[in-house]
Amino acid sequence: MKVENKPSILIIYTGGTIGMVQKSANGILVPVKFDQIQEEVPELDRLEYNLQVVTFTPPIDSSNMTPAIWVKIANTIERNYSKYDGFVILHGTDTMAYTASALSYMFENLDKPIVLTGSQLPIGILRTDGKENLITSIQIAAARNNGQAVVPEVCVYFNSKLFRGNRISKRHADDFRAFSSPNYPELANAGVEIKYFQENIHRSANKGILKVRTHFDENVVILKIFPGIGRMVFENILNIPGLKGVVLESFGSGNIPTTRWMISQIKIAIKRKIIFLNVTQCQGGAVNMGQYETSAELLNAGVVSGKDMTTEAAITKLMFLLGQGLEQEEIKLHLNKSLIGEISE
Questions:
Q1: Which of 57, 81, 158, 258 would suit a FRET pair with 16, their CA atoms being 20 to 30 Å apart?
Q2: 125-161, pLDDT tens digit by residue?
Q3: Catalytic residue set
Q4: What sign for the dihedral angle of Cα 303, 309, 310, 314?
């Protein structure tokens, strides 16, 4: 039933654990329709919001997430943007950080909340975390102050915390505190009341008409450095046909081994117009290229510093920028600065 003068929220149900039930015979989790989720959360009727649902058919396990599905989500929001005050995306946790990062780059002049959430336990399980995550995400998506959205950015709500979407990583497979944002503070905390930290919330500077960019280039790879990484493996990765970009997961503040062949192979790849973006494999902190000799060589070779970006934000940003038809130097320039709050200024 439509409630007059109440916020309208569109729920986009893509799939994930929140929408699964156990098969009694073997315990395997299988997805269900959103109608069954609503039956498990009768509290939704008490919100007095205008709630509508778009369901992806079939629901998607987030391990099967692709850029094509990011585009489908973005197009769904774009088609319905003028009709709703906010959007809630139900999504599996395994790739939620990638989707949230990708969506953050896709929307220019966003002035409405896009809140991703999910759960560690299915909605029908007695101890599920899905109910609170869903209800509070809807409340955050509906929150307004003086006619303006309180959180007009792509964000993730999970286990009482609201995070910037392009700042999180999944850090735990089976704890309710699945996500962390080590390099950027939370946007809100849901206790007895939802407390918003206005100083941490991003607001579009342009305030123009919404623009949605949906092109990604998938010819990229994440290359994690580890002690003993073999030369043949390293060279073969950099010689993948069609490769355009590499997110280099380095040690500490951006360091790699001083092995001459490794630096040499990176320099050769850069001459072939492959873009390298250097991020730390540490859970927190930032790349500071030039602090040590090994990272100074990367800097001199033309490797771009990812500063304090997460790997998820880095790889989706690289795919996004490569898909925009920009010159290589333009891409490097954009990689090195914050587009939508993914890097600390």
A1: 81
A2: 878 888 899 999 999 999 999 989 999 999 999 999 9
A3: 17
A4: negative
